[in-house]
Specification:
Blueprint lengths: L4 H15 L4 E5 L6 H14 L4 E5 L2 H13 L5 E3 L12 E4 H7 L8 E5 L7 H9 L4 E6 L16 E4 L3 H6 L5 E5 L12 E2 L2 E2 L1 H8 L2 H14 L5 E4 L3 H13 L4 E4 L5 H12 L5 E4 L14 E4 L6 H8 L11 E6 L3 H5 L27 E2 L5 E3 L20 E3 L2 E3 L3 H13 L4 H11 L5 H12 L9
Parallel strand pairs: 1-6, 1-7, 2-4, 2-5, 3-4, 5-6, 8-15, 11-13, 11-14, 12-13, 14-15
Antiparallel strand pairs: 8-17, 9-10, 16-17, 18-19
Helix pairs in contact: 14-15
């Protein structure tokens, strides 16, 4: 397996901290950055040196993916999970946490444990591993190193290694770019109480499970993403089944899936969806994390959440690249984009968790929503989806109680320079020039200077 540069850097840093005596190491890297494949490579190398590594996962769907990753690298392994015959003689073992927690006392301690989706680590079953094997090296993997309620993982990990950003992976072609739409008919959650760090599930279901809301979701799917394979995030099973019924009534092939179904049925449903026989897959918590389905072309959020981790895990499902897939479509009927920001916003993760200033990280950038196509994007003078040019607000001298206040000219200059710097194309610069009444050649001059001096999409403005 040929590792990408950032994967090699992460493995180098893991080994550095182990040599420095650290035994509880967390790796934060976005969904789709190849965390499982990277650690499978490390596991294989360790086994080749006589080590006994253990790879643990939270769910069967993620187990299947980890098995494929190990097999693709020709790494022999045993499986500790319901429905599989164990092979304890293999140096590499892969286990679901549910089965591992029941058998842990009968097992020989491994040399190190890889904990996939380690934001679950504070849960009772996972904590058991730390208690029974206190001297073992633990390497955790997650895109979102906070619990769903925003609390950190500092009790179980000493060091956090941060991988590349979502934007870096998109620009490098490792992830698919995206467009977020927040339709105008939203959900009124003003009366919904919070419980355990998120909205109360029962009250949320009563609010979200309404034909008008689902009907609005169907209409926007038909208009914005017709025929695309989409995954729906529902509040609970009843909500998901009602969503499925309404999509079917509209003539759109849709199936509900949840954890209570027979594993063979779930596997068949996933195969039908991947191959396009099913267009809508409505679910609750099955495809929120860890599941690699590049065929997902759109996601439809009908579940408001206060959890930044839950939101990013869900939308991350759509960002995996696939043949013919130019941009993923995110239909956010739940308003989560306005709560938590865009998927590629820069976020400063830490083992301490979220700062208590609201559900989103304080570094989340503001989101602008186009009044014409309802696309959400980072502040820019032109909507990147439909080309709508935003009106630049005129700034006047403020008069308060008979007292004139001078305009902060330097602040205005900074704002105007920032608007130019955020322009991503010649067309956007031309739009700014027209709004400000600049001469016709201004935009071409700035664009040419930017290309000549920086060559990276930034220009210097004195």
């Amino acid at each position: 397996m040929k590792l990408r540069d950032y994967q090699q850097a992460i493995i180098h840093e893991i080994r550095h901290w182990i040599r420095m005596g650290k035994s509880k190491i967390l790796v934060q890297s976005p969904t789709g950055s190849g965390k499982t494949a990277m650690l499978a490579f490390m596991v294989g190398r360790a086994a080749g040196k006589g080590k006994r590594p253990l790879f643990t996962v939270p769910a069967r769907e993620i187990l299947i993916q980890a098995i494929r990753s190990l097999s693709s690298q020709e790494i022999d392994h045993g499986i500790i999970a319901a429905g599989f015959s164990p092979d304890p003689n293999q140096p590499v073992q892969i286990a679901t946490i549910q089965t591992l927690a029941r058998r842990i006392h009968a097992m020989r301690p491994p040399d190190f444990v890889v904990v996939d989706e380690c934001h679950h680590a504070p849960a009772k079953q996972w904590r058991k591993l730390w208690e029974v094997w206190p001297d073992t090296v633990f390497i955790g993997l997650t895109a979102t190193p906070w619990r769903l309620d925003g609390s950190g993982l500092g009790d179980q990990f000493e060091i956090m290694i941060t991988g590349p950003s979502v934007r870096h992976l998109i620009d490098a072609g490792h992830l698919c770019d995206y467009v977020v739409y927040a339709p105008p008919v939203g959900m009124d959650i003003s009366g919904i109480q919070s419980r355990a760090g998120d909205f109360d599930n029962k009250s949320l279901a009563d609010m979200a499970d309404r034909p008008t809301i689902t009907g609005n979701a169907i209409q926007h799917y038909q208009r914005i993403a017709p025929g695309k394979r989409a995954v729906v995030a529902a509040v609970n099973i009843g909500h998901s089944k009602n969503i499925t019924a309404q999509f079917r009534a509209a003539g759109i092939p849709a199936v509900h899936i949840d954890g209570s179904e027979d594993e063979r049925i779930r596997d068949r449903i996933m195969a039908d969806f991947t191959q396009g026989r099913i267009r809508i897959l409505s679910q609750v918590g099955i495809i929120n994390e860890g599941v690699d389905i590049p065929g997902i072309e759109a996601v439809i959020s009908l579940r408001p959440t206060q959890s930044l981790s839950l939101w990013l895990q869900f939308v991350g499902r759509a960002l995996r690249p696939a043949p013919g897939k130019k941009k993923a479509i995110i239909l956010d009927h739940a308003g989560n984009t306005h709560r938590h920001g865009l998927p590629c916003d820069e976020r400063e993760w830490s083992l301490d968790g979220a700062k208590k200033k609201g559900p989103s990280h304080p570094k989340t950038l503001p989101v602008r929503q186009c009044p014409h196509c309802f696309a959400c994007h980072a502040p820019r003078p032109v909507c990147p989806s439909c080309g709508h040019v935003y009106k630049i607000q005129e700034r006047h001298v403020e008069q308060v109680d008979g007292e004139l206040k001078a305009v902060d000219q330097e602040k205005i200059r900074r704002v105007r320079r920032k608007e130019v710097a955020q322009a991503k194309s010649l067309e956007e610069l031309q739009a700014i020039g027209r709004q400000r009444g600049y001469k016709q050649g201004w935009a071409h001059h700035v664009w040419a200077a930017r290309q000549h001096k920086w060559g990276s999409g930034h220009e210097h403005i004195p």
